[in-house]
Amino acid sequence: MDNKRNSNRKAVAVIVVLLALMIPLLIFSVQMSRQISELNNNINQSSAQLDDEYLAQKIEEGIKQFIQKQRLAQQQAELKRIRDAGKKANNVRRVSEVRDHIFGNPNAEISLIEYSDFECPFCKRFHPTAKRIVEEYNGKVNWVYRHFPLGFHNPLAQKEAEASECASELGGNEMFWEYADLIYERTNSNGKGLPTESLVPMAEEIGLDADKFAECLESGRHAERVQEDFREGSEIGITGTPGNVFLHNKTGKAVLKAGAYPFDALKLEIDQLLK
Q1: What residues contact 58, with CB distance under 8 A and at least 6 apart?
Q2: Which fold has domain 90-274?
Q3: With contact defined as beta carbons under 8 Å apart, do 145 and 165 qualify?
């Protein structure tokens, strides 16, 4: 009986010892299982985040490449346009004392031919630059004014151009330039620079007969002359104003320089042509 009790006690002791050993192992196992589960979740989240970041990076790279290609295509198209316009510029009509408005020496070696719009703010800014070129080159460069009234500045730009032709009709080349100077001085540009009612008083201001000037302007007889200049400009590649062509009157070489460039930039072109 005692032996049986002792055996039972030993069995209970063994079970207690085993339980004492297993319970921590079970607890450790549960904790490890949780940690492994959390680790897997973190790995999955990190993987998803990395996938999102990778995708975002690739999208950004693709956008940048697309923009670069677009810019390159635009630059190439612009260079082609400039080259084609440069070739067309060689077809510019030669300067004529009878037909053209010339500021400076009519027999100058170089002509700055400006296709211009009286309502263009850039032409207004360029006007004194062109005059300075003539003055500083002392007879080697003259300035030829041709009309290029842009559609979005009409009807005023067209009417101002016709008015300048009326000034020329009544007072010759000198009055053309004096009237042109006055328009650029007074206009605020962009198609609404000054009221059309002021065109006749301005002519009277510089000494022209107001009645004759009004009759000329109202007749519209110089409208075709203005549009003729515009068509010529379009045919040689002028698309905006001021559209400037430097023409070597002896060799016939022409250089298109569109835009209101500063004096120093244009001086480089002129000096090259004079060599």
Answers
A1: none
A2: Glutaredoxin (3.40.30)
A3: no
Question: For the whole prediction, is pTM greater than 0.85?
Answer: no
Sequence ranges of the domains in the chain: 90-274
Beta-strand relationship, 243-248 and 254-258: antiparallel
Residue 115 gets the label, from left (phi > 0), alpha (psi -120 to 50) or beta, of: beta
pLDDT in tens, 172-212: 999 999 999 999 999 999 999 999 999 999 999 999 999 99
Work out the burial of residue 240: count CB atoms within 10 Å of its CB; fewer than 13 is exposed, 13-18 middle, 19 or more buried: middle
- 53-96 pLDDT, tens digit per residue, is 776 777 777 777 778 777 776 666 555 555 555 678 899 999 99
Cis peptide before 155 (omega within 30 of 0): yes
Distance CA 237, CA 53 (A): 49
Which of 64, 79, 37, 92 has its CA nearest to residue 232? 92
